[in-house]
Amino acid sequence: xxxxxxxxxxxxxxxxxxxxxxxxxxxxxxxxxxxxxxxxxxxxxxxxxxxxxxxxxxxxxxxxxxxxxxxxxxxxxxxxxxxxxxxxxxxxxxxxxxxxxxxxxxxxxxxxxxxxxxxxxxxxxxxxxxxxxxxxxxxxxxxxxxxxxxxxxxxxxxxxxxxxxxxxxxxxxxxxxxxxxxxxxxxxxxxxxxxxxxxxxxxxxxxxx
Length: 209
Ligand code: PRP
Ligand code: URA
What we know:
Elements: E1 4-6, H1 10-20, H2 26-44, E2 50-56, E3 61-67, E4 72-78, H3 85-91, E5 96-97, E6 99-104, E7 111-117, E8 126-130, E9 133-134, H4 138-149, E10 155-162, H5 164-173, E11 178-184, E12 187-188, E13 194-195, H6 201-206
Helix pairs in contact: 1-2, 2-3
This protein binds 1-O-pyrophosphono-5-O-phosphono-alpha-D-ribofuranose (PRP) and uracil (URA).
The site of 1-O-pyrophosphono-5-O-phosphono-alpha-D-ribofuranose has 22 residues, from strand 6, strand 9, helix 4 and helix 6.
């Protein structure tokens, strides 16, 4: 059974509060989203496997630890998930990056798939799916389903802001997936937006509105 990790780090809380403000422009929004992604990547990699190794410092021989598990893949959900990729890569520079294209139909709020391109060896990797917003959970649940349909099982999902409705849906449809949540908000409004949230993450990252 996967776990739900709601971040409690002061830097993450501070940065999320900052980007919620409606007067924060595209440049700053984009930069801070990546900073938050980097901090969340640190938390989401806490349980990666390591092995003991012998090392020689200029002073003495000793033992240390190095990563010993699967290699990572970062899978942003297009479009807003792309805004978190550089922050993730800052800590995992050798990670491979796949893309899943989904948008939410504004009427039905159901996800519509339009793209999927993954690293060839994705099944052998630890997969970090990223999207700043977990609202109804339709997009993230569909993205994880697309991965599982391709035989991918080691999946973590990272979002900056989540609504309780989305968390519940992910827990129900994908109980094996660990969720890393920057902030857990109050609810969804009648348009499926997270309240208080930060508005439309894609528009704010790419400056399209
Ligand atoms: C946003 C967001 C998530 C989705 C969350 O994307 O980035 O992917 O909504 O909502 P859900 O949990 O109810 O599915 P959007 O559909 O606006 O597409 P975009 O990234 O292309 O703007
Ligand atoms: N997608 C967003 O970008 N923001 C929300 O509040 C909900 C879905």
